[in-house]
Design goal:
The chain is built from 15 helices and no strands. With about 260 residues, the chain is an all-alpha fold. The chain has one domain. It starts with 9 loop residues before the first helix and ends in a 6-residue tail after the last helix. The model has no long low-confidence stretch (mean pLDDT about 90).
C-alpha cells in the first residue's frame, strides 16, 4: 500500500499531535493577517466570519493528505485546487502564485517550530523531509517557482517575509474576529502563544513586548501530558462547543 507521506515520516508524527497542529494554525493565523493577499479571505467571507470552524475544516484537509493512501491524498489536493480555482473564477481574478507559496511556506515553517517547541529539536534530514512533503503538495497543485530543496526554501522564506507582508485594516479585523470567537481569556492565550511562534519580522509588525511566562506555561502543559491531563487543558483553551472537533484532530494519535 502506497502513501503520500511515509508511515514512519516525521511529518506524520507532527500532524497526529493535536498540540502541534493547533500551534501550527495559531502561528499561521497570526502571520496570514499580514499577507498582502489576505483580501482573498474576504471574498468568500468564510474565515473572517467563522475562523474556528474554518480552522478545523483546514486541519481535516491537511490530515487527509498526510495520512491517506497516495491516490486519496492526491484526490484531496486536487479538490483543494479546484476549490481555489472556483473562487478565482467567481472573482474573475487569479490568486497570485506567491500567495500560494506563502501558505505552503507557513505550513513548513510552523510544522517545524511547533514540534520543536513542544517536543525536541529536529535534525536537518527531518526538516528536509518536512520540506519535501509540502514541496510535492505544491507541485501537485501546479505552483510555480518553488525552491527544490530545504536550504533554498530557507532563503525564499526570508524573501517572502520581507516582501509580502503589510499591516492594514484586514489585519485588525481578523484579530477582532479571533477575539470575538475565542473570548477575552482564550484570545489572550492565543496572542501569547503566537508571540513565541512567529518569525521576528511578524512579531515586530503585530505585537508589543510581553513579560508573560508563556514558555513556562508550555513546560507545565507538557508535564500535564505525562499526567494525562492535557485534554483538560485543550478544553480550557478552546470553547466547549469545539470539543468534538478537537478530539477529531487527535484521531491519528495512536498510529
Amino acid at each position: 500500500m502506497s502513501y503520500f507521506v511515509n508511515e514512519k515520516s516525521i511529518v506524520r508524527e507532527i500532524w497526529k499531535n493535536t498540540d502541534a497542529v493547533l500551534l501550527i494554525f495559531a502561528g499561521s493565523a497570526a502571520e496570514f493577517t499580514l499577507n498582502k493577499a489576505v483580501d482573498w479571505l474576504y471574498f468568500t467571507g468564510k474565515i473572517p466570519t467563522n475562523p474556528l470552524e474554518r480552522l478545523f475544516s483546514t486541519v481535516e484537509y491537511a490530515q487527509n493528505i498526510v495520512f491517506a493512501e497516495n491516490d486519496l491524498a492526491l484526490a484531496t489536493i486536487d479538490k483543494i485546487t479546484q476549490i481555489h480555482q472556483g473562487v478565482e473564477k467567481s472573482r474573475g481574478q487569479t490568486i497570485p502564485d506567491w500567495a500560494y507559496r506563502d501558505v505552503l511556506y507557513m505550513l513548513i515553517d510552523y510544522s517545524i517550530c511547533s514540534f520543536e517547541l513542544l517536543e525536541r529539536k529536529l535534525e536537518t534530514p527531518e526538516k528536509e523531509e518536512i520540506f519535501d512533503v509540502f514541496f510535492r503538495l505544491g507541485i501537485r497543485m501546479g505552483l510555480k517557482n518553488l525552491p527544490t530543496n530545504y536550504n533554498d526554501w530557507l532563503i525564499d522564506r526570508t524573501i517572502h517575509l520581507e516582501n509580502n507582508l503589510q499591516k492594514g485594516e484586514f489585519t485588525i479585523h481578523l484579530f477582532e474576529q479571533y477575539k470575538k470567537h475565542l473570548g477575552n481569556s482564550r484570545y489572550f492565550i492565543l496572542l501569547e502563544i503566537q508571540k513565541i511562534l512567529v518569525p521576528k519580522i511578524v512579531y515586530k509588525m503585530l505585537f508589543k513586548t510581553s513579560n508573560f511566562p508563556t514558555k513556562t506555561l508550555l513546560k507545565l502543559y507538557k508535564f500535564g501530558k505525562t499526567l494525562k491531563v492535557d485534554h483538560l487543558v485543550k478544553v480550557i483553551l478552546l470553547p466547549k462547543k469545539h470539543k468534538e472537533s478537537i478530539t477529531n484532530i487527535g484521531k491519528y494519535e495512536t498510529l
